[in-house]
Amino acid sequence: MTLSLILLCILAALLELDTTYAFQLLLSRPIIAGPLFGWLIGDMSAGVQVGIFAELLFTDVSPLGGIIPPSGVVGSVVPLLLYAQGIELCFGFFLGVLGAVLYSFFDALLRKTRFDWLIFLEKRIDRKPTDIKRTIAVTLLLSFLMSFIFISVLAWGSSQLMFILYPYISARTHFAFQLAYLAVPWIGLSTLIPAFRLKTR
Q1: Fewest beta carbons within 10 Å, which of 64, 76, 108, 153?
Q2: Which domain holds residue 180?
Q3: Residue 159 Cα distances to 26, 30, 103, 106, 147, angstroms
Q4: Rounded distance, CA 189 to CA 64, Å?
């Protein structure tokens, strides 16, 4: 990957912190992250398109209770990272959705393994309360690094896979992916309409 794509992975990992760990300014929503990533790769319209499609697809899944929803940041950045390398959005988007779902499992695993670490940190802060800022900073840095590694490996692996498969994709398969990609916003809207209908009753 080039330096600009690595910087995009860094930004995505920072925005992933906004989801739950820090800030929570809604910058991690695909509708915001997508255009930002698109602007950075030099194609704002592709970023807006991916952002809207991902937002519509993931908007009905809320992080309530023990539910960890698919990552809107991963779902937005992966298609645009691939698009910057010459891979069409209709292929990159579905790899991004797969990556977003995989990230939710990855995040769940991190949260489980982090439990013992948090107990240790809590005891350490009880002994020395002045360490709280440093402890929070280290925890956020570790979360950022794990997200960065996941996004970078996923983007690299997806691009290598597509470079291998691209010559073997038939015209019919290509057309099917294009149709499926165009159907995404309608699928997203179909989940929103019943939700709005219930709220108005």
Answers
A1: 64
A2: 3-200
A3: 28, 21, 17, 20, 18
A4: 21
